[in-house]
Design a protein that fits this description.
By secondary structure, this protein is an alpha+beta fold. The chain is 36% helix and 24% strand. It has a 5-stranded antiparallel sheet with strand order 1-2-3-5-4, with helices on one face. Helix 1 packs antiparallel against helix 2, helix 2 runs antiparallel to helix 4 and helix 3 crosses helix 4. The longest helix has 21 residues.
């Protein structure tokens, strides 16, 4: 059995804990190990905060820039999460980064107040991908992690 859900959220600070709580509740109900749940929920919070802060073009640009989307998949062995927005997207240096480039950028970003969230997502997850949405405006943050299950898990892949 697998679970997936998708949220269309307003670019408001209150949407970040809402998405995080939904993910935590889903994983707790399914029986995911609490440490894995915490890592994924923290990564989701960082991705959502990024969409809230950078995911639009201003108040006059229409309703699509006032929202972002979160989609989560728990498929028995892995959790995959995608956060998309309709903002300006990532600068060229952020797209399709290699591990070596990511480490350098993450180290440099720790010297600045902004930019730490994407490095944190990479550290918390098994796979992370930051790119611009194909054929449209906006950024796409995808990340995934192999799940560990509690013994009483409802969705245990075993």
């Amino acid at each position: 059995m697998s679970i997936w859900w998708s949220l269309h959220l307003r670019r408001e600070a209150a949407s970040v804990p809402l998405a995080r709580r939904l993910l935590l509740g889903t994983m707790e109900t399914a029986g995911v190990d609490p440490d894995i749940s915490f890592d994924l929920s923290l990564a989701l919070s960082e991705a959502c905060a990024n969409a809230v802060e950078h995911g639009g073009y201003g108040e006059d640009s229409g309703p699509s820039s006032a929202a972002y989307r979160v989609t989560a998949y728990l498929d028995g062995e892995r959790c995959r999460i995608e956060v998309t927005d309709s903002g300006p997207g990532f600068p060229a240096r952020r797209r399709r980064r290699t591990a070596a480039v990511a480490q350098l950028e993450t180290a440099n970003e720790h010297e600045h107040e902004n930019g730490r969230g994407l490095g944190l997502i990479q550290e918390l997850c098994d796979h992370a991908d930051f790119r611009n949405r194909p054929g449209s405006r906006g950024a796409m943050v995808r990340f995934s992690k192999v799940l560990k299950w509690r013994e009483d898990a409802l969705l245990n892949a075993a």
